Amino acid sequence: MSSKQSKHDIQAALLCAGKATRLHPLTITRPLALLPLAGKPLIDHIIRELEDAHIDNIVAVTGYKGNMLRAYLKRIRGAGHDVSAVRQTSVSGTADAVATAAMAADSDMAVLYVDSLIDASAMKLGLEMFQRENADVVMLTGRVADPSAYGVLEVEGDHIIRVLEKPQPRRRLEALVNAGCYFIKRDAAHVAAETATHKVRKEREFTTTIQRLIDDGKLVLSCEIARGRWIDMGRLWNLLDANEHLLMRNPLTILGEIEAGVTVKGKVGGGEGSLVRSGTYLEGPIVIGTSCDIGPNCYVRGSTHIGNNVRVGNGVEIKNSIVMDGTHIEHLSYVGDSIIGERCNLGAGTITANLRLDDKSVKILVKGVVTDSGRRKLGAIVGDGVKTGVNVSLMPGVKLGPACQIGPHLKVEKDVEPNTFHR
User: What is the C-alpha separation between 28 and 20, in angstroms, rounded?
Assistant: First the structure.
């Protein structure tokens, strides 16, 4: 198959309409698709993988915070990407999103969840199987140790015979699960409009559409891919995994100014107008945005993303973290295994503790449920516009809602609600 053929006979639908409440507090103020990873919004990375797989006709299904996403897509469309947007008027599940995309499609479809990052090589495998076998649906699948957060599949050879959406409790130690990417015939995609509402979650889910197609005798196949070819981003700590993965694989270039006395090791990228001051030690992979001011005497370790217009003061250490646009981290602070939102101000001596004293894995509240992250090291998740006073300590796995304020010398051990003041 030629690149030209593959570019014209399939349309990608990115499902971006959901509220992504499991990623609060970060998605309180933005859609999941615009979360920054390795120097770019998540949706940019997905679009790049699609284009590398020769799928460049792309439509994003928008809903929650849709104006923000559509404005961004308009800008990148002007930069030469064939990306359009359609509105999902009733944001009641993935089946509705696929039905919305199918109404706008004039060809077979690649359907991708925006919380899964799939390598182009894996997409090519799925597309080849879809066209070779003349299948109604090909689902990219992978094996995970704990399948409780995924759609679990029962297969006979390559044939999917049953889909179990997020089974509880965990069924077994390892299972084949839905990786979040489908290739589907246009006529089959229209069945999504007829999907019934799930009895428990009260949503119209695309996996229910897939099960109906199976029950109707359609050819629904599994294309199993290696775990390293896809990254699930359904939990906050997954964003750190994805950021590290992307920083390791992407080329990085330093465009800003680095003063004498700065040590640079590994892959480091810096944007125009940024300044790294003397005595700073950069240990990649690291990406620094535009118009940043770093140092002096800072230690920035991999795998770290620093956004645009960020100030990192004297004697600060940052490790394996995402720091978003416009944030200031004042002198003698430590940010480790953490995500810091936009326009935050961390007062001098603010510490994000990232390791439990008992050395057990860090637990975090997800939609009100205490959840084991499986990570030995996990710091704080800080929403946009947060301010901390001097000498504040944030305990492992704590979440701070947007625009909250933490007074000086406090130890924060529980999640903090948005727009609150603590002293």
Answer: 9
Q: What stretches of 309-366 adopt beta strand conformation (E)?
A: 311-312, 317-319, 322-323, 328-329, 334-336, 339-340, 345-346, 351-352, 363-366
Question: What's the rounded Cα separation, in Å, for the pair 280 and 236?
Answer: 29
Q: How confident is the model at residue 251 (pLDDT cuts 50, 70, 90)?
A: confident
Is the predicted pLDDT of residue 343 greater than 70, yes or no?
A: yes
CATH 3.90.550.10 in the chain is located at 3-234
- Which residues, 6 or more positions from 251, have their beta carbon under 8 angstroms from its beta carbon? 267
CATH superfamily name and code, 3-234: Spore Coat Polysaccharide Biosynthesis Protein SpsA; Chain A (3.90.550.10)
pTM above 0.90, yes or no: yes
Q: What is the pLDDT of residue 417?
A: 97
Instruction: Say which of 8, 198, 331, 422 is annotated catalytic.
Output: 331
Could you give the dihedral angle defined by the CA atoms of residues 255, 257, 260 and 262, in that order, rounded to the nearest 10 degrees?
-60
State mean pLDDT over 402-407.
98
What pLDDT shows up at residue 419? 98
Q: Residues near 312 by Cβ (< 8 Å), separated by ≥ 6? A: 292, 293, 294, 295, 298, 300, 306, 318, 323, 329
Cα–Cα distance between 209 and 363 in angstroms, integer? Answer: 34
pLDDT on residue 200 = 52
User: Token digits for 245?
Assistant: 């993965």
pLDDT at residue 6 above 60?
Answer: no
**Per-residue pLDDT band at 2 (split at 50, 70, 90):** very low
CB 195 within 8 A of CB 206: yes
Catalytic status, residue 81: no
Amino acid type, 243: N
Distance CA 386, CA 408 (A): 13
User: Which CATH code, of 3.30.1120.10, 2.160.10.10, 2.60.40.1880, 3.30.565.10, is assigned to 247-422?
Assistant: 2.160.10.10
Q: What is the DSSP string of 375-411?
A: -SB---EE-TT-EE-TT-EE-TT-EE-TT-EE-TT-E
Helix axes 206-215, 94-104, angle to 10 degrees: 80
Q: For the chain, where do the domains classified as CATH 2.160.10.10 start and end? A: 247-422
Structure tokens at 191: 């069945």
